[in-house]
Amino acid sequence: MSLKYQKFLLFGDSITEFAFASSRLPNFDEFSLGAALVNTYTRRMDIIQRGFSGYNSRWALKIIPQILEQAGPDIVMATLFFGTNDAALGGSQRVDLPEFKLNMKKMVKILKDRGIRPILVGPALHDKNNWEPRKPEEVAAGFVRSNENNKLYSDAGEKLAKEERIPFVNLYQAFSSERNDSWQSLLSDGIHFTGKGYEVFFNELMKVIEESYPEYSPQNMEYKLPEWREVDEKGSVLDDYLNH
């Protein structure tokens, strides 16, 4: 046992950037993906968040080497959650499907070459009836989206994950499975997640970690330092841990 913490990197777009938000609606506390992960891995592993609103796989590929360098050593797992912006039907965020898959493949290789276990996350559903009335200028400029296109990018991510033999978090399927056809309640504005949406994400993420990387399931990881009742008054028992 030592005080050296391994790291779990969350790398993605705005959905990752907002992962620690707990009150996206006024006076209403919501489930927070980031806080849930920190709590789940407390005294076991550090959670590193690197989310960039509006980014696509092309821009992510440019920055990932420096992201990894800045985050430092001991990263053992990383999510790659892009595709929501790539799948836009127009505008500067759009990345065609073949390039998207190639960009994701390159990022997977970058992670694997560093001994980091990748987890691909695919885009979820899109509620245009919620999104488009909020963004008339963006819609007029061609920044529109569709569930059909999101599904294509999700399928491409899932196919790549199978080719690379790495786990895939299928949010499109998970959101579609919401009971009583209430998937719209998982989205705050048609794209970004409510607390309920993040809770679905959290549950799916923990499921694939358990299945694909069980050594990094919380129950299988070392709990840092002994419980306080096991520590003598002077703290001498801690010396052995601090010298590792």
UniProtKB/TrEMBL annotation:
Residue ranges occupied by any SGNH hydrolase-type esterase domain in the UniProt entry: 10-200
Alphabetized CDD domains for the sequence: Isoamyl_acetate_hydrolase_like (cd01838)
Any Pfam family matching the protein: Lipase_GDSL_2
InterPro entries: Iah1-like, SGNH_hydro, SGNH_hydro_sf
Domain of life: Eukaryota
Name of the protein in question: LAFE_0F03642g1_1
Species the sequence originates in: Lachancea fermentati
